[in-house]
Design brief:
Residues 206-419 form the Histidine kinase domain. The protein is of the alpha+beta class. The protein is built from eleven helices and eleven strands. The protein has helices at 2-53, 57-65, 76-97, 139-144, 157-164, 166-225, 234-261, 273-291, 310-326, 357-360, 384-394; strands at 104-110, 116-118, 129-135, 148-155, 269-272, 294-299, 305-308, 332-340, 343-350, 398-403, 409-416. The protein has a five-stranded mixed beta sheet, with helices on one face. It has a four-stranded antiparallel beta sheet with strand order 2-1-4-3, with helices on one face. A hairpin with a 5-residue loop joins strand 10 (398-403) and strand 11. The chain is rod-shaped, with a radius of gyration of 44 Å.
């Protein structure tokens, strides 16, 4: 439960961090957009000054609309209306040329307010309006004998700036939403898998504990029957005991693996492993003599001081030896143990069919078994090597596999020494 809260906390902090980073990028983008906009408006203002600095049709029309002359034989109001629309078209053209496509208004006026030409569309005077004055020079001020200002006005520029940044903003928000969705999905999947593993392990534990009772009963029954058997029946009883022992080993292995997967802490004690390893090798040598296959071992003299859980470590070594026997037609197995670089090396070498490069990536996965086509010629449950890897990991060690198909396999366990 604590881990779940930690994961959710990290996720929330990460999302908030992403939003903050996105917000900072947006602020920087808005600042840059504002600077670019001001540069474009300044360019537009300079171009308008150049258009109106000399006498032309528009500047002459504006001058006539505010003078006492009557060149066009029209009323002053009519001339000002015409000037208003023609000037509006010029300003719109210059803004478009500078890639400013937003609503605007303008106001041409003199300081004494005797000259006042307003845009066809006017904005309400509020705080969101931004004004850019352009001081006119040349023909118009000279003819009208007044200092003239052409003031460009824009409103609600934040919306305009955001529209300019949509190429950055929309993909950013989209990718942020995708990241949040994927992380939530992964967290849900992770917790679902953890719950599934817990349920599966509980089921396995209950099932294996239920199996242990009849296995134990069969073992006692074989001991009772042994007294009344003749020589012909004893081999049959021996086979029953052998299979019961094998089934009991499988049950213990499944229980051990389930306990390790539930992250149960195993106690490591400092021991000299060499005497124990020699005893395990002697036991396996007796099995080799009984089943008529070849097994040798070579233990370097000296102490093998490591921190270990003997029960689990013995099971791991026996699993590797059992695999070496099972996957060989005529087994020839060698176990070597030696120390070096502050580590204990235990190598198990066989003359079996070997492991392909493709299979090497999967052999330590739970329930995975190397196959030949659709056949599994060797009996088992695909738990042994998964168990071995977990045990080696708990001992802070490593496991290496050297193998070529049809050339045998060498599996080496490396465990840190604790001298």
């Amino acid at each position: 439960m604590k881990k779940r809260i930690i994961y959710i906390g990290i996720f929330i902090i990460s999302v908030v961090g992403l939003f903050i980073v996105q917000y900072q990028y947006l602020r920087i983008g808005l600042s840059l957009a504002k600077v670019q906009f001001e540069q474009k408006v300044e360019n537009t203002g300079n171009e308008l000054k150049k258009e109106l600095v000399n006498e032309n049709q528009l500047s002459f029309l504006i001058a006539e609309s505010f003078s006492d002359r009557n060149y066009f034989s029209l009323s002053r109001d009519s001339l000002q209306d015409a000037s208003r629309y023609f000037l509006n078209d010029l300003i719109e053209k210059k803004l478009n040329e500078n890639k400013i496509k937003t609503d605007f208004s303008y106001h041409l006026f003199s300081k004494d307010s005797l000259i006042n030409l307003a845009s066809p569309t006017e904005f309400e005077d509020d705080e969101s309006s931004i004004k850019y004055p352009v001081i006119l020079e040349g023909y118009l001020p000279d003819v009208l004998k007044k200092e003239l200002t052409l003031q460009l006005e824009f409103q609600d520029l934040n919306a305009y700036f955001l529209s300019q940044l949509k190429g950055l903003l929309i993909p950013g928000l989209l990718f942020l939403a995708i990241i949040i969705f994927v992380v939530i999905w992964m967290l849900r999947l992770f917790f679902w898998q953890r719950n599934l593993i817990t349920i599966t392990n509980d089921f396995i534990n209950n099932l294996t504990h239920e199996l242990k009772t009849p296995v134990f009963s069969i073992g006692i029954a074989t001991k009772i029957l042994e007294k009344d058997l003749n020589e012909k029946q004893k081999p049959i009883l021996f086979q029953i005991r052998k299979q019961v022992s094998r089934l009991n080993n499988h049950i213990e292995q499944v229980l051990g693996l389930a306990s390790l997967e539930s992250k149960e802490i195993i106690e490591l004690k400092k021991v000299d492993l060499r005497p124990e390893l020699q005893e395990w090798c002697e036991d396996f040598k007796m099995l080799a003599d009984l089943e008529n296959f070849q097994f040798k071992y070579d233990l370097e003299p000296g102490k093998y001081m490591i921190k270990t859980a003997l029960f689990h470590f013995e099971n791991a070594i026996n699993n590797l030896l059992d695999n070496a026997k099972k996957y060989s037609e005529d087994p020839e197995i060698l176990l070597k143990a030696y120390t070096g670089k502050n580590r204990l090396f235990i190598s198990i070498i066989d003359n079996g069919k070997g492991i392909s490069n493709k299979e090497k990536r999967h052999i330590f996965k739970k329930f995975y078994r190397a196959s030949e086509g659709n056949l599994h010629r060797t009996k088992g449950y695909g738990l042994g090597l998964s168990y071995v890897k977990e045990i080696v990991k708990r001992h802070r060690g490593r496991i290496k596999v050297l193998s070529e198909q049809n050339e045998g396999t060498e599996i080496t366990i490396l465990i840190p020494l604790n001298e």
